[in-house]
Amino acid sequence: MNVIxxxxxEGRARxxxxxxxxxxxxxxxxGVSVFAGxxxxxxxxxxxxxxxxxxxxxxxxxxxxxxxxSQLRSQMQDKVDALAMRLGLLDANIIRLNALGKRLTQxxxxxxxxxxxxxxxxxxxxxxxxxxxxxxxxGLTGMIDDLSQTIDRRSAxxxxxxxxxxxxxxxxxxxxxxxxxxxxxxxxxxxxxxxxFTGEEGVHKGVDFAAPAGTRVLAVAAGVVTWAGPRxxxxxxxEVAHGKGYSTRYAHNSVILVKVGDEVQRGEPIAEVGSTGRxxxxxxxxxxxxxxxxxxxxxxxxx
Length: 303
What we know:
It is built from three helices and 14 strands. It is α+β, with helices and mostly antiparallel strands. Strand 8 (about 225-230) and strand 9 (about 235-245) form a beta hairpin. The chain starts with a strand and ends with a helix.
């Protein structure tokens, strides 16, 4: 097989005989070189494209992460704003509680130095060697801790104030005070007098309230009924124990409305006015006892 090349400049033809081994080897070598060059160029082009793709992918992922971070930051800011608003409301409520505490202290006539709602109560104690100290977070976390401690202190103050006021209320409830009948007049006082049956001098250990028969007799303090029935000289008697050594007696009743063991409150009806026992007419004989001894009821009636 011959390959003929024509040259315009020289005006002649040249022959290349492919049947010769040397010529065939040269042609094959040239073909292989061209193929290798094309392959190398294609490989470089592919590597370049792969490098561009590998650079584009991290950039896209980075942009996506940035978008997520921005979204999370916006959500966190919204939560921080809401938390700050809640803290403002809590602070306002504490201010109102302090004002209420001061008002209650004044109403209860308690020394302001005992329940001072303008300043936190003094606290202290030895260091706990077994405790673990953790650094407090700044900003809102610190504000939350301060408010929480303030609320705990105010709660303790209010509990103590409530106990004081409850104790005073209970003391006031069990201390005899007032009249055993709403309508009526004092027909005989406490102390020495002439006995209406014998005409001799004697000691009247109570106060008599004259009232129409059937008038309701009222307990003058809260307590427990310890006697409800006839008793020599007293007629139909009701006796109520009030605590702290106080007890009261209501005598000469026509009807008894309670029984032994009943709890009664101040102003609760316990009997009806009558003239049973050693009596000259409808009235209630009222006694106040302190430690089992009759005392003058007038200091309690006029209180």
